[in-house]
Amino acid sequence: MQIKLLEKILEENNQPAFRTKQIQKAIYQDGISDFSEITTIAKDLRELLDKKIKILSFEAEKILVSSDKRSIKALLKLEDGNLIETVLISPKPDVWSACISSQVGCPLGCGFCATGRGGFKRDLTAEEISDQVLWWRMYLKKNSSARNLIRPAEGGAPSPYKGEGNKVDTIVFMGMGEPFLNWENVNQSLKNLTNHELFGFGSRSISVSTAGIPEGIEKMAAEFPQINLAISLHFPTDEQRNKFMPINRKYNLDELRNSLRNYFKVSNRKVFMEYILLSDINDSKDDADNLIKYLKSMGKLQLLHINLIRYNSTSDELKSSDVGVVREFRDYLVQNGISVTIRKSLGQDIQGACGQLVGEKNKLDDKERIK
Questions:
Q1: Are strands 304-310 and 271-277 parallel, antiparallel or unpaired?
Q2: Which end of the chain has fewer CB atoms at under 10 Å, N or C?
């Protein structure tokens, strides 16, 4: 919601100063999705606000719920017609994590990512970023029991959840786009999300994931030292990274290591390294040895944790490593003193990987135009 516009409207209508905070609480903390539901303000003011301002900067175009109800994906249509995705994931019963986008598309063009294949359209505003979290708060409020969530495909497994979790617990900037290439708006959205008069999230409940932009890492360390940092590493050598992650040609692994060393000096916080395992590409013993060597070269091994991720296929050319290979890779890292977790794969039946839903929608639109 455009807070400055809200303040202007209230001032023009001679409303007391406390009215802004009253409305903010109803929307951001109580999850009220319509001005008409805010009973603490007069009816005529509710009607005026409904005409003058929109609570959200987009509308839901499509919502998909996984068969186990542990992942929910939303395709959102912005006011200019562009589409973005956001995902709500429940890693354990009644705990919800919102994965949000920072750009429409992505300029990085990583070879394994569906978002990159769609190209880059524009940066999201701070409002469009934080509104994704607001939208999920409203969604969970309306569907506070897991049984009331939009029904999964017919024949889907029943939910094992009690349905008591009706709030977003954590936020990850790991959706569409590279957050550090839209730092001005991401910065403001982080301020909004940690503002106790708005969303009120603790800094350690938020994670920002980057493909490795040194300037962004340094800025976040200086301005938000308690927010979690995740690095989309995925490949342990420059040769591999150059092939699949073009950003590495500008910021190679040496530069990434140097920026992380500086990050550790400022924050002394643990960094999460994301590593997608691709069959016969980066899952061999040599790859594991190269990864171990690179991590140990940081000099702060105790502050590094590896998240191994089975690839949620977005390409016919790339395949996920076999489950057994993933476990062997993990065990070998553990034997060599690396802190590591295999991240649970959720949402495959709802096209959970970033950019899949937008890509599908764009293909359908293209077919309609051709007709």
A1: parallel
A2: C
The one catalytic residue among 7, 85, 215, 255: 85
Q: C-alpha 150: how far from its chain's center?
A: 21
Instruction: In whole angstroms, give the CA distance from residue 154 to residue 151.
Output: 8
What pTM was computed for the model? 0.87
Q: Which amino acid is at 73?
A: K
Nearest CA among 57, 36, 58, 38 for reference residue 47: 36
Catalytic residue (one of 37, 354, 360, 368): 354
What structural domains and CATH numbers belong to the chain?
3-52 (1.10.150), 58-370 (3.20.20.70)
85 is catalytic: yes
SS3 for 9? helix
Which residue intervals of the chain are DSSP H helices?
Answer: 3-12, 18-24, 43-52, 114-117, 126-142, 183-193, 214-223, 238-244, 253-267, 285-296, 323-335, 356-370
Is 354 considered catalytic here?
yes
Q: What is the pLDDT of residues 18-46, one digit of tens each?
A: 999 999 999 998 888 899 999 999 999 99
